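Can anyone check this?
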Amino acid sequence: MTLATDATKWILTFFLFILYYEYMKAYLNAAEVAKLLSVDRATVTRWIKRGVIKDAIRPGGTQNWRIPLSSYQELSKQYESR
C-alpha cells in the first residue's frame, strides 16, 4: 500500500461515514425514541397515530416506524418542559 491509496481509503471511509449519519440516521425507529424518552414503545406508536409525532413514516410494507430526527427533537423539547 502506498500513502496515496491509504489516504484515498481514509477519505472514502470518512465520506461514507458522513453519508450514513446525514441520510441513513436522519430517522429513528419507535424503540429508539422510546428509549431516549424513557417511555414504552407502544406510547411512541400511540403518539404517532394521534399526530403528536409528525412526519413519521412506515417504509414499504414494514411494521417499523421511522421518525425524523427533527420530529424527535421537537417532541423531546415538549416532553422535557413538562
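Reply from J.R.: I decoded it. The two ends are 57 Å apart (CA to CA).
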